## 1
Amino acid sequence: MQIPFRHVQGAHCETATIAALLQHQGLQVNEPQVFGVGSGYFFAYLPFIKVTDKKFPLVTFRAQPGAILKNVGRRLGVKWHDVTFKDPAKAMDALDRSLDAGIPTAVQTGVYWLPYLPGAFRFHFNAHNVIVYGREGDEYLLSDPVLAEPVRCSRADLQRARYARGDMAPNGRLYYPAVVPRQTDLRGPVRAGLKDACFNMLKIPFPLIGVRGIRRLAKVVQGWPRRLGPEMAALNVGHLVLLLEEIGTGGAGFRFMYGAFLGEAAGILGIDGLSDASRRLTAVGDTWREFALLASRTCKGRKVVERPYDRLAELLRECADREQAIFRDVQALLRRGAA
Amino acid sequence: MASEDRVTRAGTPERWSRIVTYKPNADGRVEGVRDDGFEDSSLVHEVAWQVIHRDAAEAWRQVHQGLKSPLYYHMVANLLNPQMLAREVGMWTWRVRRHFRPGVFAALKPAMLQKYAGALRLTVQELASIPPEPPPVDPPSPGTGG
């Protein structure tokens, strides 16, 4: 059996999954709106959390997995049916039941165990979201938002992926919207999302988060060749590129997607100044790309500039300064709009 | 899906064909477009896979010389470390590490082998052996490590 479901490729698995599920239930929201309303925009440099074989510091460009789902639910009035299971058999049964009821259902999976993904993307990451929209015998029909086409996956493989262990273990988690409002006024939610982003980027009094986090990272990157030696420094900047560009960020660590959201917000709230902010943030995205470009070449050992690590730090500081200016302006625009 | 898929083929595995990104269109509105992705990050993949292949080849050599059990090779080939493998099978790390000793591994009960095999998506026969040839090591590219 198969539920009629429109597969859409998205930039990021969590936001694309939420947008597709809500659209299926008749609520017209797109991926940048989900990202913005869910307060997905973020920056944190967390050296005490090590990722990928416990070798590299965690740098994140978005809110923690699950936060967007929660915020979108709260702000748009969507109630999620969101459960985990101890017993894999029960988790698969629950999935089957919800498919039988005609509900496309999102499952959390470990990407390493999904055999349909291209080889380069088999790494151990446990918070990948996929929509299941049908079953034929022993095969499930999946809409994986990072791929251009829907795919199939065997029951055994899907079960293994839903029970990957380790950090952020999915524990067979599945979710779908149980209550979706008929229509919703996006103005309040968009405003709340923008406020949250400004707060996260500017106000959190902790030097590893927001624009201060970007500046701290700049300082640390500059010291890598001295502190870690050339090989580990190269691998570390390479890892930064993967976090920035390759793990479903829509490019430049979500900066492009948030640029799109600021454009949407300008229309929804009727604040023209936000279109300007949208253009400026997209331009910052280009600078992040420039950073990624130089970082990739540095990782590969190609000499492009003298003292590449100093230049990388310089680019990061430039991004921090410009993002700070943009979010200060957004804050001012919101205040003026409210008065 | 044996671990061999990943590490016994030389070179960098294929990536997503296309990704979605958001770019301004002619009117200046930002919208989603398909994009060939960020080509230069493939350089990072090349370097990362060189490291993975190098580690897997080194693990193969150690098992081949009888210094480590085949379990060790399959752990490395599946990009796991002892902590991660221990969590996959629900045991303490020291116990998993102990099973890297060839003698200890050879004496393991079938139920234990089945546990590891299930976690690594291998058959017990695959788990107890290693590929006849070492995984290929990519030739270092000019200037790597600089």
## 2
Amino acid sequence: MLDSAYIVGAAETPYTRHPEPGVSTSGLLVQAAREAVATAGLRWSDVDGLGVSSFTLGPDHAVDLAWRAGLGPLSWLMEDTNGGASALNMLQHAELAIRSGQASTIVLVSGDRMDAAAFRMLVEHYNRATEEHLAPLPITGPNALFALLTQRQMTALGLSRRDYGHIITAQREWAGLNPGAVYRAPLSLEEYLDAPLVAPPLGRYDCVPPVSGADAIVLTAGPATAGIGGSGRAVRVLAVETTIGIDDQDADGLTTGLVQAAPRAWERSGLGASDMDVLSVYDDYPAMALAQLIDLGAIAAEDAQRDLAERIGTRRLPVNTAGGQLSAGQAGAAAGMHGVVETYRQLAGIAGERQVADARFGVVTGYGMVLYRYGACANVAVLEGVR
Amino acid sequence: MSGPAFFQRCTSCSAVSFPPRLACRACGGAAFEQIEAGPGVVEEVTELPGGLRIASVRARGVLVVCSTPSAVEAGASVALVDSPPGPGDSPAAAAVASAPDTAPTASMTAQAVHLPGSARAEPAALFTTTAHIENEGTP
């Protein structure tokens, strides 16, 4: 068993609010995967493992994508259906596949062509509980559920809408430094507060813009060779941990599975939240970004109001440095991989204008699959940039 | 007119669930009975464009998501009904007082809120038991 697996390349297709005719989910996935392999300095024929996550790939599955993309023979193949947790779920498996020698070069790719019709189909038929108990309310999509959760968090932590605004405006500032983000224009706290309410206390800017796009990473057993647009630097996977079904959907939703998974990840990596130079948390709603930062140990619950203003709002704590889903966009199942790609770029030193100086350690979280009220899955990866 | 909402109760350990499960998370049992949800207490409310209110309601210890076209506030006692509440949904019709032993007391003017997919269903086997399959396969 090898000690470590390495991320040696990554790519993100441009995100678009309204996909051009002819753009397909499978096309986006292959575009991201090929670009990631190219940045790693590897050939398409080097790939012997493929992991795929997508809401809209059907009727195809991972094996269809592999065949249509001209890959193979492969010694490792997986498909993950767990939405915002799918990227790290795949990474948890892929890391072990590399270390055990089951595969030597694995591409993990996530993405969707998420136009209005696809989004409506997704949110109305998300799962059986949604079809039977939520869609008939009627609600379409999770905004109302997370409005209720945000109210609960505001009460528990003594927060106001303005406090959450620091997450939104800071991520918009980061997005301004990311040419790939769909919303890059600066946003003031007043503009955030004045935006139309979608489901009080959630306003327009508390909700992610659905986009079309795909994200991919490449894992190998050894350090990188510099490819086109690549860095020649590798990012070592120090730990990946998952917790699923922590509260049976029946608690307050303010604690995610990270409260169990993160301590395991810190123990395995020998690091802690305060060692992290960059953080990427799954920001489907600002309340969930905050909940995960608390569960990681990056923010103390009792200091939340102060830290939102003084650490997040000022960007002193580098969180979601590509703008996150809230400003870069939520490309369906790619939403979890977006943070992995950005953290790779930061730790490889190729994050351009938004590069965090001397970034060596990074943490990425995933969260997702709302069963009835809350996301059931949470996971965390600790990564290290190495020369 | 709407009927009362029903939850699922494990016949082994009496744990109450909604939405219904295939096996009990508390004890692993797979035999259930249906019980009236009874009145609930609103914990949070939000409002969607168009005016529909979506509320967190706790009843029999279970937190469920309900809707109502009219204003309702946190802390209010409500009657849970199985289809969108209409003019005929008096508290009596919603069987508010059906479970006085286990649920919070609702006032006689309790407002009705909609809990979709909660109508009493015909009892049905959730799955074929393993024992049955083994018996069929034994020569």
## 3
Amino acid sequence: MGVRTSRWAEAWRDLTQSLRLTPFWMRLAYQRVRGRYQRLSLGLIWHPLSYAFVVISLGYMWAAIMGREASYFMPYVAVGFATWFFISNAISGATDIFNGARRHIMARPTPLMMFIFERTAANLMAFFLEAPLFFLVALLVGRDFGWIVLLALPGLGLLILNAIWANLFFAIAVARFPDLGEMVRNIMRIAFFFTPIIWSVDVNPRVENVSQWNPFYHAVEVVRAPFMGAPPDRISYIVVSAIAAVGLTLTIPMFVYARRRVPYWV
Amino acid sequence: MARLVLENVVMEYPPLRRSFVRSLADATRKRAPMTFALNNVNLTLEDGDRVALLGPNGAGKTTLLSVMAGIYPPLRGRVTIEGTMETLFSISAGVDRELPGHANINLHLRRLGVTGKEAKEARAYIAELSELGGKLDSPVHTYSAGMSMRLAFAMAMATDPEILLIDEYFGAGDRAFQEKARAAMLEKVEHSRIVVFASHNPRLLESICNKALIMNAGQVQDYGDFEPVIARYLESLREDPKVSRKDMMETAGAAEPPSLILTPSRRAASLKSQASGDTPSCAAISAAGESGAAFFSALGELARSADMTLIDIPAMFAEQGVKPAARVTSLREDAPATGALLTGMRGWPAFGSSVLATGKVAVLIRDPRELAAEFWLMESGLAEGGLDRALAELDDQKPSRLPAAIAAARGLYETLAAGGAYSRPGIALFSAEAAWADPEGAIRAIAGHLGLAADDQAMKAAAAAFAPPALRSPMSALRANEQGQIRMALNRIARELGYHTPEPAR
């Protein structure tokens, strides 16, 4: 464990140790999701329940505002919201990963990737708790998804890959520069309105063109499009894969460099 | 074989955490100023090393432990860890108060990667040690503070690593549990190959450690066998005017009887070496068991080894004809005495015990030409860390919150000593600076302690000697002749109480 061990070897050991601790961080992730509803008698059921409340009321209202039929727009909102939460949690939610794990980090030598996996897993669990609503809402408005929804899975896989690097990137960046956290959260709040979640791009061609430049649009599309009955655009897959590739390429060396310093920063 | 090696370890602190704007600003400068949390630390620990880690607050103890654990990778230098390691730093950190005890235990075992049969055994052990039983099914937030503490502690004790790093943590639960906790702790230490233990509790350190490491300002000030290092350390603290009394108190150890780490004060040392040409050695003893008899015999050992005069207080009382039979009993058994403090020549506590489990004991000592020491009697109301608090309050200039008996008595002693009334070896009774603010109270308190009624002849005589204004002024505010009057009065009391009359100064 000497310092002369290379940073890369140390980072690799961090990763393998983190993977070895999978049962531990899976449990922590579950507890993170469960914890919010800990003392309630309905417990975890509150999560899909709250989600149903938001999605059904907002879906219904925005269908009316957008002048779209509810049978299309309510599932659209239901899937889009959950996907957006997953994406935005990987960014603005990541800002407190290391600072929030301070007591763990300082109490004993702990691999850091564990906390990235833990947070990604927690966000994924939340997503899967919301997913049944996609189908319930579809049932409610009499829409049949069909087998094409299975195409959402590879899309989700790409998002998970992106979520891992985004979680890592923002966790490290904010540990180093705490002020970034506020900045990032503000940007993500606005990004929500710039991304077609409660509106759709087909309102007019200009909006559709501009949205092509919004990476969040493509990220949402790779999961949402299959639910809307069409495979996602090839361009969406390309954009999301490219972001994953670039993100991982940038973040891995960043982690290798920052790993030894994070305990000092938090 | 476990090993823990630190080579030229350097750490900067506060490490690189600055605001964004500051960071940019710093980046434009050549180099930000550095302070070292650890400066060039070299250390090799091997099987069988049980190291007491001591040093004033801010000396780098916790940082050093974190570096040893691998939590802080050192910025320069090298740390080599061979062997399984466990840290007991903040043992409650891993407890989720929303989860039941069982779930917390499982989570903890997963964190440690303990599975299968080993995990089952650990669970049983934790349940047994924590004494929580069926309560483990309830969420931790329904526990009392003592129960949560017991759970956290038992969890921490569940495994046997080769290298064990401990940051001060003791004080779990009630007294019955304390004993159990101690036993568990010792067992865990027994099972490990290397232990580094940062604590202010010398009794615990004494019973565990064979080496001592003194940190000061990020550097190793001293390292080696336990007793000589501790002796040098206490000595160095005494000579350092910046060390607060409270620090000293903590270091000298307040919490537990009947243990004693005793170092002759500098002045005593010089006096003694003048007298005999010897350098007095430090003596550290610990008495097993809690009986007063064991304690006194341990003190006897100490006295012999340090070549000091040991005075058994009960015997002393008897010898002086103070008819304190009842009082003596109460010193050794049950109330009101619940603590004792042994101080060095300059008033630094060398040994303190604020909580004597059964109110037994009260100590010894003193030959003013050897080891100057005194003891304080504590009222039973001061049990449970009371002495530490009392001292802290003294430091905070809030003596009014001290029980009058303690507050008052020191003044009397100091007066007697300063007036030369007291050159014979004997005991110094009671004390505290506060007495200087209240000589009248001092007289009354000491008389009370010795079982004299307020209308006792000696009391009356003493009081009569005081000019009324002087009685209400702090001693230090009085003119020399007024001080002299008071001293005379106090001397008179001393005589009345059966103490010897002053001998001419030699």
## 4
Amino acid sequence: MSDLTPPQTATDTNAVARVVRAALNEDWLATAVGLLLVALVLTGVIPTGLVP
Amino acid sequence: MVATEEDLAAPPAERPARTWPWLVLGVLIVLVLGSVARFLEDTIPAAAKGTSLEKFAAAVEYPIYAIVLGLIGNVIVYFTGLRERIADAVFTEFFIKTGLVLLGASINLSLIVKAAGPAILQAVLLISSVFLITWYLGGLLGLDEKLRALLSAAVSICGVSAAIAAAGAVRAKREQLAYAASLVIIFALPSIFLLPWLADLLGLSPAVAGAWIGGNIDTTAAVTAAGAIAGEQTLQIATIVKATQNALIGIVAVALTAYFAFKVEKDADAQRPGLRQLWDRFPKFVLGFIAASAIGTWYVGSVSAAEGKAHIAVINDLRTWFLILAFVSIGLQLRVSALREAGWRPVAVFGGATLANLAIGLGLASILFAGFTV
């Protein structure tokens, strides 16, 4: 299936590596933001009625 | 700045320059579309009350408004030439993962513990069988080994995230990852509406429906959308099952790394993958989901019922916002051009594997979650 197997280039490797790194960073960021929001609500910093 | 599938679809020289103003504009577009979805979800059922559309309007949940608005936005940004410029602002994975961490706060930790056994068993059986079926179909239709690995991981585990992990493991080409990501989204979109409808038609309990949806729909965002349409209990089980599958990405990525290094590329100098790689590939938001559940369970048990309920309701409102933004982003991200370039064979492999996934998943969910109460 030649149309699906062009030779792999350094750009390919870099692009894939960049997406893999981004996915790993997003995991930590989502965890931190999610837990921070939970903490802000439970401590009353984000009060009831503020979120539409 | 976060890299996206678009980085894989076009070489750097062909991509428009990305600057902060475009990023801000992109975020604004996602926020405006999300706000419109939230507004429609609030106002349409009330406006339709007493009319012939009352039942229909009440049945249309926020994921539907968000996805449809995202698709409309997709067409608009395509024809105005903005689509590639704002691509970096479409943080689908971040929105969905943050939404799932917030969802954890409303799920009692005991439910996660109770569902963990059947969820792990279902994940192991489903991932193994569907991975092997997809691998076999890919071989039958003559797909490249790396594309076979990507499609097998995407169908059997959790869509785009698994395809990204597998692409890193087998050092796939960027076009292959773009095909796999596009296939995941194109197949997931109809599943969002089809599976809740089928679950209702088959009279599945919320637990079985949740396990079926969580085990079948490839991408986590689409699982959450389908679960939200089917109901809160279904959403909770679907999320636990999907999070379990997500947690197994690392094992599959490490196995693929070893297989490609030693069997396919026969690299004698390759190092054996170890525990470090397993940890690197583990989706950390699953830890956030469990931590939020533990915090929420402790909090609700330590304050009055009214106070606990009010605060969890605010967290649920925040969760709905993040999920709406994720669903808008799914609509905005849809690309059909990659499929045209891929040809019919990857589509046929993905379609065949999805059908197998549906049948095996329904069987496993019906057996493992029979009599399970949420």
